[in-house]
Amino acid sequence: MIDDELVKQQLAQTLEGTNFEGLGERYEGKVRDNYHRDGRRYIVVTDRISAFDRILGTVPFKGQVLNRLAAWWFDKTKSVAPNHFVGVPDPNVLECIECTPLPVELVMRAYITGSTSTSMWTHYAEGARTFCGHALPEGLVKNQRLERPLLTPATKAPKGEHDVSASRAEILAKGGITAADFDRAAEIAETLFLAGQKICAERGLILVDTKYELGKTKDGEVIVIDEIHTPDSSRFWMESTYAERFNAGIDPEPLDKDFVRRYYTALGYRGDGEAPELPPDVRIGAAKRYIEAFERITGESFVPDTSPPLPRIAKNLGIPS
Questions:
Q1: Angle of helix 62-76 versus helix 280-298 axis, rounded to 10
Q2: Which of 83, 103, 234, 277 could in theory staple to 176 by disulfide, Cβ–Cβ 3.0 to 4.6 A?
Q3: Residues contacting 302, CB < 8 A, separation 6+
Q4: What SS3 class is residue 291?
Q5: DSSP readout, 25-39?
Q6: CA torsion sign, 19 to 279 to 55 to 44?
Q7: Which helix (H) or strand (E) holds 131?
Q8: Alpha helix ranges (H) inside the chain
Q9: DSSP letters along 37-82, please?
Q10: Tens-place pLDDT, residues 103-152
């Protein structure tokens, strides 16, 4: 496990954003800065952390962890689902096939949990018994395992706005995606989730829920893009303590950015208005959980690159800094 002092030293040198003129047309997402040219997309994974559809600050080494873990998963699951991964030219950069993103997030859920406006538990606790077209039984308890994993799609809101959970029929009614493309994307998401659950279980983790982004290649093939099974896109719980904590009515032990969500929820913040500042101890705690997730899932030690990220990325990609 990484030394706390090293993480602390990196607080002042996180990658907050980029603006590389030589890398192609730029699009800034919540966490990733995307550039594309000549049929390739370069995804620069920053250290920004988002929750409640808000940018909350930065976490040391987060971008490197997410990038390496996404690359690991893309390679591990390429026989399960086609994806856009090409290579890792820098610790913070993923080189990919350029695709046209589908206008929907494919969210898979195996447990009823969460605290955001799009969470199944939030809706259930407010009295809803249907979620994204799925009928839910009475008597469910927070953090309880569902009878089977459910696909619960969500609209892709612009940065700063909230995503909205919706059923297949509602997604199709909005337009922008055909039934054939949605159903192929859903098939990929369900297959990939089962594969991810199996791999995580072998490592003592519960893959609780996750989101997938999919896109179409220039040849019209629907493939997985963005990231998969990272602490940003997924919720992980420690399997060894789940049952005991669930029976005691205590939230499971997280190994993802839920650590940060819970900090804000305790403050009474759920995404409305400007977020309180993310304090150093929470940033460090989040970094350690991201790194632990990487090491537990991959079985590899996380060795960070502590050099200044902007000039390093420019050098590795052969562009002006």
A1: 20
A2: 103
A3: 2, 61, 64, 65, 68, 291, 294, 295
A4: helix
A5: EEEE-SSEEEEEETT
A6: positive
A7: strand 130-131
A8: 4-9, 62-76, 120-125, 168-174, 179-201, 239-247, 258-266, 280-298, 309-317
A9: ETTEEEEEE-SEEEETTEEEEE-TTHHHHHHHHHHHHHHHTTTTS-
A10: 999 999 999 999 777 899 999 999 999 999 999 999 999 999 999 999 99
